[in-house]
User: What shape does this take?
Amino acid sequence: MNPTPAVAAEGAPAAAPSLSFASLPLAPATLVNLEQLGYRQMTPIQAASLPLALAGHDLIAQAKTGSGKTAAFALSLLARLNPRRFAVQALVLCPTRELADQVTQEIRRLARGADNIKVLTLCGGSQMRPQISSLEHGAHVVVGTPGRIMDHLQRESLDLSALDTLVLDEADRMLDMGFYDDIAFVAKACPKQRQTLLFSATYPESIAGLSRAFLRQPQRITLTEQHEAGKIRQRFYEVESEQKLAAVGLLLKHYRPVSTLAFCNTRQQCRELLQVLRAEGFVALALHGELEQRERDQVLIQFANRSCSVLVATDVAARGLDIDQLEAVINVDVTPDTEVHVHRIGRTGRVDQAGWAFSLVSGNQMTRVDNIEKALGHEIEWHSLSELEATSGKPLQPPMATLLILGGRKEKIRPGDVLGALTGDAGFSKEQIGKINVTDTSTYVAVERSIARDAVRKLSAGTVKGKRVKVHLLQDRAE
Ligand code: ADP
Ligand code: MG
Assistant: This one.
């Protein structure tokens, strides 16, 4: 069964769909909540998918990271939900715990306008027993990773017989991670009469296979990436292979972006680049497939809170990454896949800020650039490394540094407690404190780089929530 031909969502559709949430059949309380959340109008993927999803169609929706896919399925599954029915009515499968947590939070935010809706996260890496007892208390919506959901089904601690909506979020990444069989197992445990919504950033052949097996007459929505003209400034540099790693340092010193994501094609290259950057005094971290979840969380937190200048990553490791403020993307190697290129550079130039996208091209990669040029439909800008000069003698430093407090949710630490300790007895101002992330066992606090050591000293000497805490500065340059 082939998907119904693409809905008019590519480029500028002839009759643009309304962007107002009020044009949808949503409860008034939901509309009020959306307004309070600052969701003034639908994003393009929401405008294209919500009318179809709310009408009950199965969907295959493809749009880039950060385009608002979560709300596109969350609003739909919440609209079908009956809060008075204590049964799992919707299940969202995500590739990682990190993404499952993000989706859970977004669903909870969006459900605020409705009666008590219970959303439960079930992921691997956490103990089974508490999950089982939470399930016994009942949940309306479950968000989890395929392996763990399958575990619960096999133990019969999770019953999906009342399910109305199945969502496969980041389906391409789940398949990359080898979850096909687990997804198939879970889908077979769902009632045949259900709605299935599949979301993906890319559309490889494997997704077509998955949808043939588990979706019914799906409508397909593709939002081809149209970066707003002028928002992403792309520059290409022809560079000898041996000069590439040094060229990254030159770009950073010349443009001085606060946060940069540098893409490498191989893990080996990631390692080498990290070494070169650190040797030059940059604060850099790497994201690769070998990191444990905890380490990965730590890297992402430090990058997102602006205490790391450069994140070095492969495409696979960077999948699903949503970073608010990213001043630059550097393609250390141009990827052979034009779609991947467009996806990479789409991470910068978000919302209302401009972004840089630099590509370092060696002689044997010229055909790749030709393909990109064809896809863009206009000529690209070539620049020379000799134009680059360090604008200031000072090394590029991130504005913040991260303190690690041993203790987190399990110790009932909340962001407010930490902020209170720093702005109270310790005497810092609110403006000197950045993002505070509390995980199960740790708390990460971004503070202005200049006060970092002082903040460690004062927090160690004082108390958080009346208790002494162990604090140290995360050493971003140590291996
Ligand atoms: P995706 O899953 O496509 O990568 P997300 O669902 O994570 O994207 O959304 C990215 C960000 O955009 C989130 O912070 C979300 O809260 C925000 N967002 C989503 N929809 C809207 C909207 N209609 N208006 C404003 N912000 C939105
Ligand atoms: Mg998403």
User: Anything to note?
Assistant: The two ends are 51 Å apart (CA to CA). The CA atoms of residues 28 and 98 lie 31 Å apart. The chain has a mean pLDDT of 88.
